[in-house]
Design a protein that fits this description.
alpha/beta, Rossmann fold, five-stranded parallel β-sheet, three-stranded antiparallel β-sheet, 8 strands, about 15% strand, globular, binds BIS(adenosine)-5'-pentaphosphate, binds magnesium ion, binds zinc ion
């Protein structure tokens, strides 16, 4: 099963991805997480990506397509994959189609989490992520059992640099509306798009996504 999880910054992609990969035994491919790992390791790609990410801008398509092409060739993808935060431009969506054709794979579902812009800001400013495993929490909506500590791995919870100022968040939303929204039309045109209300509770959103992935229409 190949699933693309879409939605604006803060819509809950990472939060839902954690649950989907457990329930459906697919790998989680988050281009955002991959870039943050490259930054932490100080690789040349990480250094380049950091300049864009810290301003809230999308990283160039070639860099991102390279990450995805490499990951999709690994053997554990055979059971299925959940793409989180990719594709984010129509050019990336077209490149993904080419990659999948070569690999003999196809997209089963594109799920879009719909959340109002006002709520996105609250979600992003209250978010904390685990420095070690990347798990996402929210001070108010999804607090960890122990403040500042990851439930899963005991890692330290920090604020993501691109969540730190309203200006960066505004740039990310702007990038989303101009470059990523058109990708929804691309997939709607192929009959693959499923809209899910992302405003509900985390459990309710998960249950809506699970219904889509189980083929219930
Ligand atoms: P990326 O890491 O993908 O960030 P994003 O798209 O901005 O999305 P977020 O991770 O911020 O939000 P999310 O939807 O995962 O929400 P979450 O579950 O954490 O990308 C970062 C950057 O990398 C980009 O800006 C770009 O520079 C670069 N990049 C990545 N991919 C790229 C690509 N393909 N092309 C080019 N550049 C790329 O939830 C948010 C908060 O809300 C959390 O606190 C959570 O606890 C809370 N929450 C979640 N669900 C609910 C709910 N139902 N109710 C209440 N609270 C909730
Ligand atoms: Mg995320
Ligand atoms: Zn952790």
């Amino acid at each position: 099963m190949l699933v693309i999880l879409m939605g604006p910054p803060g819509a809950g992609k990472g939060t839902q991805a954690e649950r989907i990969v457990k329930e459906f035994s697919v790998i989680h491919l988050s281009t955002g997480d991959a870039l943050r790992a490259a930054i932490a390791q100080g690789t040349p790609m990480g250094k380049l990506a950091k300049e864009y990410m810290n301003k809230g801008l999308l990283v160039p398509d070639e860099v991102i397509n390279g990450i995805v092409a490499e990951r999709l060739q690994q053997p554990d993808v055979a059971h299925g994959a959940l793409l989180d935060g990719y594709p984010r431009t129509v050019a990336q969506a077209e490149e993904l189609d080419k990659m999948l054709k070569e690999l003999g794979k196809y997209i089963d579902f594109v799920v879009n989490l719909e959340v109002d812009a006002n709520n996105l800001l609250r979600r992003l400013t209250g978010r904390r992520i685990c420095k070690s495993c990347g798990s996402s929490y929210h001070l108010e909506f999804n607090p960890p059992k122990q403040p500042g500590v990851c439930d899963h791995c005991g890692g330290e919870l920090i604020q993501r640099p691109d969540d730190e100022s309203e200006e960066k968040v505004a740039t990310r939303l702007d990038e989303y509306f101009t470059k990523t929204k058109p990708v929804l039309h691309y997939y709607a045109g192929k009959g693959l798009l499923h809209q899910v209300n992302g405003e509900d509770s985390i459990d309710e959103v998960f249950s809506s996504i699970a219904s889509v992935l189980r083929g219930a229409r």
